[in-house]
């Protein structure tokens, strides 16, 4: 029976099925697979501009000896390690606060916190740049309140510049993650909380022992998404530092370095492709680790 | 309504037909030259003036001058050249001298050689040098970035300094004056963007050195001029006589707002300085301070750019003829752009004109153009090489280390290792 099907009608379905998906597959191959394969090939070439020639593993050797790449990698990892946990935690706390049905005006708060996500990356970066200038509104406010005596060099000091980038991306993306948590919180059965409350479980323990475990798949998802986003960080840094990643490369990210290698410096497309594969490998590795850490443990 | 439409319809149709035939005719004859450049008050306006002059004698050629930000021009050009399709590229593009070799060497065949057409002996020699690859000269020399020290006479007078005191300074004396200016007027001496190594380049070239030697090899650890320049920037930062700026606009704001007493930069800033009518008569111009090293001068260069014709351009012949006719020969044109836009061209013959002799009331009646033109002939010639952007990034990355008191020799070593990793 099975054999007969395979030979006759099954074959008919197979052919037609493939014909239907063929245009889509063709486009994917042309615009996704071909460029990816080509960039892999490019990462083994080196040269100035269009004068490229095969160089084997020369670009990978160059990575090791390139202090700017090491700096960009360190910065990117710093952003990732510092910013992602802060943002995820903040989004979780905000989501559970805003999920409280007794909170007045929670629609307003939800909108206000989500709004940064719909602003243009470039527009808000430019605004932040103005607000955090030496004589900008942030410094003058802090000085007026009496927290600081001399203005903070937000954009010209390596430490503060990094801090500013972290503040900026946290402001921009916290609301985005919060929406995922809010949606997931709606799916948690109210009766679980009710039982916990009857049993006298305090609010904090309800959060850590009920909310977080039940949100685990969503937390995993947002963490992976945020990891990818942070490793590809470009727009904010580019606009805050006029494309330079300064001061002293303190805010330079891998993506910005790729951009500089391609468009600002002597174009070395091969080396830029190699650096972009570093991001690919990092994202894959980190995602694996995160999936492993969040795996279902059999008890 | 219906009647009205019926009455007008034939006329409208007639007009449309006439329009279509007119379009067809012009499309067959007219040539439009597309040009990319970046400063609406400077090279864009100048190019429009040049185009208008050429159209007067060649009515069949029109111009489309496109105005981008400078980084966007460079990025778009680099992307277009890399993609290998000529459709997205203009006919003529403006390229800053620092980047010229980079484009010419990494995209061979992309730009039209002008060696046989343009008489380069009529231009400042350093200009032709930056656009030569393998004996072929590309591009039409445009403006110079000869540097000067612009200073606020009023602030310096309050601090007790006359214009004579500003002539032929050393950088140490400049810092000394800066401290007194701040003590007496509360104004900082200069604006400084810690992410812009422009000031280091000015100082270094004034002593005849560059990041690279004549062969294009890195010249960092043994570069006395670079060392002195970095030490000087360190001293300026330690003396705290500068107002920090983040980015170009911010830096321009330091002097347009009247917050600083001096500006050390290229002559092309004149238009921006003069854009503040309320500051008329308050500015003076002096030669830039000199470093304390062998071969130090009071003349240097910052920026400056040239026009390049794309080899793939459909209007290549017209574009070359246009550049040669206006930028290569029209002395009157150079007088006009000097007076209106403050553009110091590099065509030597243009310097004898009346505009260079004129006194400028904005600068209290000084003959600033003559002065700049004199300095231009004294600018030490250096080889910009192909990696100036990379070297600049390495230098700015190390500037904070200098302020924190790291020995300059160590900083130079760090810069050297960063550059070596970059240039391959």
From TrEMBL, chain A:
Membrane topology: Multi-pass membrane protein
Family matches, as Pfam families: BPD_transp_1
Location(s), subcellular: Cell membrane
InterPro entries with a match to the protein in the record: ABC_transporter_permease (IPR051393), MetI-like (IPR000515), MetI-like_sf (IPR035906)
Transmembrane segments: 20-44, 77-95, 107-127, 164-184, 214-234, 269-293
Signal peptide annotation: none
Cross-referenced CDD domains: TM_PBP2
Keyword Transport: yes
Domain of life: Bacteria
Keywords of the record: Cell membrane, Membrane, Transmembrane, Transmembrane helix, Transport
GO cellular component labels: plasma membrane
Residue span, ABC transmembrane type-1 domain: 73-290
Record GO biological process: transmembrane transport
Family per record: Belongs to the binding-protein-dependent transport system permease family.
Designated name of the protein: Lactose ABC transporter permease
Organism: Sinorhizobium saheli
Organism taxonomic ancestry: Bacteria, Pseudomonadati, Pseudomonadota, Alphaproteobacteria, Hyphomicrobiales
UniProtKB/TrEMBL annotation, chain B:
Classification via Gene3D superfamilies: Periplasmic binding protein-like II
Keywords carried by this UniProt record: Periplasm, Signal
Keyword Nucleotide-binding (UniProt): no
Cross-referenced InterPro entries: Bact_solute-bd_prot1, SBP
Pfam hit, one: SBP_bac_8
Cellular location(s): Periplasm
CC annotations in GO: periplasmic space
Predominant location category: periplasm
Family named by the database record: Belongs to the bacterial solute-binding protein 1 family.
Designated name of the protein: ABC transporter substrate-binding protein
Organism: Sinorhizobium saheli
Source organism phylogeny: Bacteria, Pseudomonadati, Pseudomonadota, Alphaproteobacteria, Hyphomicrobiales
């Amino acid at each position: 029976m099975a054999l007969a099907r395979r030979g006759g009608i099954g074959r008919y379905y197979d052919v037609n099925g493939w014909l239907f998906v063929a245009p889509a597959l063709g486009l994917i191959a042309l615009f996704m697979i071909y460029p990816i394969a080509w960039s892999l090939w490019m990462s083994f070439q080196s040269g100035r501009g269009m004068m490229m020639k095969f160089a084997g593993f020369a670009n990978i050797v160059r990575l090791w000896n390139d202090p700017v790449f090491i700096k960009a990698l360190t910065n990117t990892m710093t952003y990732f390690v510092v910013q992602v946990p802060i943002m995820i935690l903040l989004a979780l706390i905000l989501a559970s606060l805003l999920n409280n049905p007794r909170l007045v005006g929670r629609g307003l708060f939800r909108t206000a916190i989500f709004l940064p996500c719909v602003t243009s990356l470039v527009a808000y970066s430019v605004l932040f740049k103005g607000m955090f200038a030496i004589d900008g509104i942030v410094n003058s406010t802090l000085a007026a309140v009496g927290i600081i005596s001399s203005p903070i060099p937000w954009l010209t000091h390596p430490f503060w510049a990094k801090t500013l980038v972290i503040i900026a991306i946290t402001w921009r993306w916290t609301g985005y993650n919060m929406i995922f948590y809010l949606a997931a919180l709606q799916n948690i059965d109210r009766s679980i909380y009710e039982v916990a409350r009857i049993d006298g479980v305090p609010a904090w323990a309800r959060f850590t022992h009920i909310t977080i475990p039940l949100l685990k798949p969503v937390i995993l998802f947002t963490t992976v998404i945020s990891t990818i986003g942070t490793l590809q960080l470009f727009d904010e840094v580019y606009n805050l530092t006029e494309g330079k990643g300064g001061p002293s490369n303190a805010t330079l990210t891998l993506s910005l370095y790729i951009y500089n290698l391609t468009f600002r410096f002597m174009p070395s497309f091969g080396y830029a492709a190699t650096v972009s594969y570093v991001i690919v490998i990092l994202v894959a590795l980190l995602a694996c680790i995160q999936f492993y850490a969040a795996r279902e443990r059999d008890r | 309504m219906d009647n009205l439409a019926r009455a007008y319809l034939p006329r409208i149709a007639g007009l449309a037909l006439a329009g279509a035939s007119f379009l067809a005719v012009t499309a067959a004859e007219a040539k439009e030259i597309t040009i990319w450049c970046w400063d609406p008050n400077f090279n864009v306006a100048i190019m429009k003036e040049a185009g208008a002059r050429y159209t007067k004698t060649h009515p069949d050629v029109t111009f489309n001058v496109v105005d981008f930000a400078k980084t966007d021009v460079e990025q778009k050009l680099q992307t277009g050249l890399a993609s290998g399709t000529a459709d997205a590229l203009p006919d003529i593009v403006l390229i800053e001298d620092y980047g010229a070799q980079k484009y010419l060497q990494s995209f061979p065949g992309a730009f039209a050689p002008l060696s046989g057409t343009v008489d380069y002996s009529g231009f400042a020699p350093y200009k032709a040098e930056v656009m030569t690859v393998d004996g072929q000269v590309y591009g039409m020399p445009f403006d110079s970035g000869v540097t000067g020290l612009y200073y606020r006479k009023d602030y310096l007078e309050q601090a007790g300094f006359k214009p004579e005191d500003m002539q032929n300074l050393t950088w140490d004396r400049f810092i000394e004056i800066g401290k007194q200016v701040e003590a007496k007027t509360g104004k900082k001496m200069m604006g400084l963007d810690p992410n812009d190594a422009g000031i280091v380049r000015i100082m270094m070239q004034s002593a005849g050195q560059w990041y690279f030697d004549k062969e294009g090899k890195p010249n960092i650890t043994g570069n006395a001029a670079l060392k002195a320049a970095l030490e000087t920037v360190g001293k300026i930062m330690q003396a705290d006589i500068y107002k920090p700026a983040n980015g170009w606009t911010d830096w321009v704001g330091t002097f347009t707002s009247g917050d600083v007493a001096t500006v050390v930069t290229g002559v092309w800033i004149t238009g921006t300085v003069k854009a503040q009518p309320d500051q008329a008569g308050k500015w003076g111009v002096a030669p830039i301070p000199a470093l304390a090293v062998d071969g130090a001068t009071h003349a240097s260069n910052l920026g400056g750019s040239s026009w390049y014709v794309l080899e793939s351009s459909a209007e290549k012949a017209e574009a070359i003829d246009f550049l040669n006719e206006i930028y290569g020969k029209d002395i009157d044109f150079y007088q006009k752009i000097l007076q209106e836009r403050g553009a110091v061209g590099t065509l030597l013959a243009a310097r004898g004109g009346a505009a260079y002799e004129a006194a400028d009331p904005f600068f209290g009646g000084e003959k600033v153009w003559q002065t700049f033109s004199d300095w231009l002939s004294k600018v030490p010639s250096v080889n910009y090489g192909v990696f100036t952007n990379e070297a600049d990034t390495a230098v700015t990355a190390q500037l904070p280390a200098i302020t924190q008191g790291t020995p300059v020799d160590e900083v130079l070593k760090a810069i050297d290792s960063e550059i070596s990793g970059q240039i391959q």
